[in-house]
Amino acid sequence: MYTPLIKKRTGRYGNNHWLVFSPKLKRDVNLFSDLEFDNWVLIETDPTVVTFCEQPWEAEIEGEKGTSIFDMWYKKDDGSEIFTEIKYENDLKKEDVVEQIRIQKTWCEINGKEHLVRTEKEIRSNRIYLENLKEMIPYVLNSDNPVEVDRHKLKSLLVDSKKTIGDLSKVLDIGLPRLYEAIYCMIYAGEVKADLGTHYFGLETEVWIGEKKELT
């Protein structure tokens, strides 16, 4: 487990600063660019991610000058741990960024850790999916545990086949806000899946029960 190394907010730390509450960690999370925020949305809503930490560690190579703080570390339910650096594609060829990533990769190789550089090409590859996940988080913040009766009814209705939210709303005697909340919370927990990457969340969204794995 790591503790955020949040330094005094000068330079890049004063620009596009996001302070968000994480339902997964039950604490505020500091993010220092819009791209870091979007990456956090993907990590926060991935049911296979057990825990994570922003600005978790300062990489330093013995005998060399220079250090570099990772943007995020996360641990998945299979035990794997990944240190990540979030960068815009246009910045990857900058001399200081090249050196920053070299230090991080070298540290990870020495310490047997996995390293990943993520850019907007990966993080924002599916805008519809990302926007649906952003809409999910307020529902989870409002209630990360749906009404047990709603949860039980939804699972029993989905046990045999996919159904649209519109179909479910016709069968269940609850309002749409409560139905949306229950479904979003169950997606967040990995109990059900939905086609969040093809169109915006609504009555036509298909929901089904599947294995707990990363939502794509």
Task: Jot down its keywords.
disordered C terminus, 7 helices, alpha+beta, 2 domains, about 220 residues, 3-stranded antiparallel beta sheet, 11 strands
If you had to describe this structure to a student in words, what would you say it looks like?
The protein folds into 2 domains: 11-123, 3-Layer(aba) Sandwich (Trna Endonuclease, Chain: A, domain 1); 127-208, Arc Repressor Mutant, subunit A, CATH 1.10.10. Helices cover 37% and strands 21% of the residues. The chain is built from 7 helices and 11 strands. It has helices at 34-44, 95-111, 120-123, 127-142, 148-158, 165-171, 176-189, and strands at 18-22, 27-31, 49-54, 58-60, 67-69, 72-76, 81-86, 114-118, 163-164, 193-194, 206-208. A 4-stranded mixed sheet has the order 3-6-7-8. Strands 9-11-10 form a 3-stranded antiparallel sheet. Helix 4 (127-142) packs across helix 7 (176-189). The two termini are 26 Å apart. Residues 9-14 and 212-216 have low confidence and may be disordered.
Short description:
The protein is an alpha+beta fold. It has seven helices and eleven strands.
CATH architecture label name of the largest domain? 3-Layer(aba) Sandwich
Class by SSE composition:
alpha+beta
The count of β-strands is 11
The unreliable regions are 9-14, 212-216
Apparent shape: elongated
pLDDT averaged residue by residue: 91
Strand content: 15-25%
Helix run count: 7
- If you consult CATH, what is the topology of the largest domain? Trna Endonuclease, Chain: A, domain 1
Rg, please? 19 Å
H/E element sequence: EEHEEEEEHEHHHEHHEE
Overall CATH class of the largest domain: Alpha Beta
Main sheet characteristics: 4 strands, mixed
Strand order within the widest sheet? 3-6-7-8
Oligomer: single chain
Through-space gap between termini = 26 Å
Helix content: 25-40%
Number of domains: 2
Pfam family, one: Tn7_TnsA-like_N
GO molecular function: nucleic acid binding
Protein name: TnsA endonuclease N-terminal domain-containing protein
